[in-house]
Amino acid sequence: MALCFLAATLLHTYQLVRTRTWYWFPFVLGGYCEAAGYIARAVAAIQTPEYTLPPYVVDTTLVLIAPALFAAGMYLQLGRIIRLAEGEKHALVRVSWLGAIFLIGDVMCFFSQAAGKSYSFSVLQASTNFPQEQSPCQDKHARPSI
What residue spans of the chain are helical by DSSP H? Predict the structure, then answer.
């Protein structure tokens, strides 16, 4: 799956640079996030039975970010299509506000997903045998002070 996303994204990158259609940049960035997320998933899968948390975190984070970037690219396209078709009078939202409204919605969704994932990671780390990081200031053999 990662190779499919990577191949398609490389093709989109080539087209973006060749035609200088910079409004497609969020879409291409989403493709790279999706490919990197699937690569991290593959890395996490081959760690059996010595699982570590970072590949899982990278996988779920990048796979969650990618659709928001795909949507942002499509919102930019929607505004361009409305302008080119001279359909601004038929649009429910002014084209100048279109990107801002969808961007605010995407940012709110991203933060709510990030909050849920951070909670999920903390519960996962506490309930499984993922290695807990210890502060360099802590000495596990030191006696507690009273």
Answer: 2-19, 25-45, 53-84, 95-127
Tell me the per-residue pLDDT of 43-65, one tens digit each, with 9 for 90 and over.
Answer: 888 877 777 778 877 888 888 88
Burial, 108: exposed, middle or buried (Cβ in 10 Å; 0-12, 13-18, 19+)? exposed
What are the distances in angstroms from CA 68 to CA 24, 31, 71, 101?
13, 11, 5, 13
Question: Is the sign of the CA dihedral 78, 83, 87, 89 positive or negative?
Answer: positive
The amino acid occupying position 91 is: A
**Three-state DSSP class for residue 26:** helix
Closest CA to 31 of 55, 19, 14: 14
| pTM reported for the whole predicted model | 0.69
**In the chain, which residues have pLDDT < 70?**
124-146
CA distance 74 to 80: 10
Residue 44 CB coordination number (10 Å): 19
Spatial distance between the Cα atoms of 20 and 141, rounded to a whole number of angstroms: 61
Instruction: Answer yes or no: are the C-beta atoms of 62 and 32 closer than 8 Å.
Output: no
CA 100/CA 94 separation, integer angstroms: 10
